[in-house]
Amino acid sequence: MYQLLKPILFKFDPEKVHYFVTRNLKRVNRFPGGAALSRAVWLVNNAKLERTVFGLKFKNPVGLAAGFDKNGDVIAEMANLGFGFVELGTVTPLPQPGNPKPRMFRLPADGALINRMGFNNLGVDVLASRIAAYRKSTAAAKNPVIIGGNIGKNKNTPNEDAVSDYIKCFDRLFDVVDYFVVNVSSPNTPGLRALQEKEPLMHILNTLQQRNQKNIINRPILLKIAPDLTNEQLDDIVEIVQQTGIAGVIATNTTISREGLASPQQVLEEAGGLSGKPLTSRSTEVIRYLAQKSNGSFPIIGVGGIHSARDAQEKLDAGASLVQLYTGFIYEGPDLIGRINKALLK
Where is the Dihydroorotate dehydrogenase catalytic domain (predicted)? Predict the structure, then answer.
């Protein structure tokens, strides 16, 4: 069904289509019997798919990547499509509109997207309230899902004060999420990627870990990294994870590279992060490098260019414990989730 609708949807602005689809998905799930029908069609329930990673039990290893649901709008709906976990955000302490529109562009010839959204979100208070409401809902009781909180800094916060923004998001979400992801790798917030350097990154992660350890329950903290890091920088990442004791890494975010693309030059000149099929090999390379360099000492969530069950399997074979979808989900539709899980069962 989705593949029949996709040519129509792809005629319109990507951001408008996103909100159109999510609004109607919510309507379907609110209609009497709609949520149950969605689960009957999409869910692949099998104990063999369960994974326990950084102390959390995932009903299957296929998750929704951050960026799709920044404000906790469709948690139950994504769970009903078969995702084993959903990562919400990136969220910032204060609401912010993000970058001027248009800010998302399709590259159908490459199976890719370029986005420069700029952490547009309603702020951490709204997200925390929505997750708390979901936790109390009948939807969560019928089909619970692991929830991650992807946290970032506001655009106007100087890098030297960035840690305060991460602390605010961490503290506000602590009671409602299952794990955290520190996002310092988006190319769409000026100067953010500078926080991937060893000294500022160690400061942020150590500070969050100190707050984490003061609580009775610790929340796993992961670091999301860019695919554009050199091997020397990846060596630093391994050392940082081991020294700070955080739970693991998400590899990878979008890339600023435009190499080897078939799309028109006009769209290739758009600023922003590239995601989708052009990232498939590079993200898998990063996963494999981290897994080998660390001797598998920490879990990795693989994301980037997963458009088929084979793509997902390659990332798992390279050393990922779990995988996430975003651009592949947009191009292939919700059937991709089930196809991956069914292939894993075989």
Answer: 49-344
> Is 271 strand, coil or helix?
coil
- CATH assignment of the domain containing 67: 3.20.20.70
Q: What is the CA angle 236-303-274, rounded to 5?
A: 90
Instruction: Kindly state the tokens that stand for 107.
Output: 């590259």
Phi/psi of residue 114, nearest 5 degrees: -115, 130
Nearest to 95 by CA among 64, 78, 66, 118: 118
Bond prior to 102 in cis (omega within 30° of 0):
yes
Element (H, E) at 30: helix 14-30
3-state DSSP call for residue 96? strand
Other Cβ atoms within 10 Å of 92 Cβ, number: 28
Our answer to whether residue 164 is catalytic in this structure is no
The boundaries of the domain holding residue 42 are 2-345
Q: What are phi and psi of 2, to 5 degrees?
A: -60, -40
Crossing angle of helices 162-173 and 198-213, rounded to 10°: 30
Binding residues are 66-70, 90, 115-119, 150, 183, 188, 224, 252-254, 276, 305, 326-327
DSSP labels for 135-202?
Answer: HTSHHHHHS--EEEEEE---TTS-GGGHHHHHHHHHHHHTTT-SEEEEE---TTSTTGGGGGSHHHHH
d(CA 267, CA 271): 9
Interior angle at CA 29, CA 28 and CA 31, nearest 5 = 65
**186, 275, 294, 321: which is the annotated catalytic residue?**
186
Count of domains observed in the chain: 1
Those residues of the chain that have pLDDT short of 50 are none
Q: Are 153 and 201 in contact (CB under 8 A)?
A: no
Q: Encode pLDDT of 202-248 as tens digits.
A: 999 999 999 999 888 999 999 999 999 999 999 999 999 999 999 99
Q: What is the pLDDT of residue 215?
A: 86
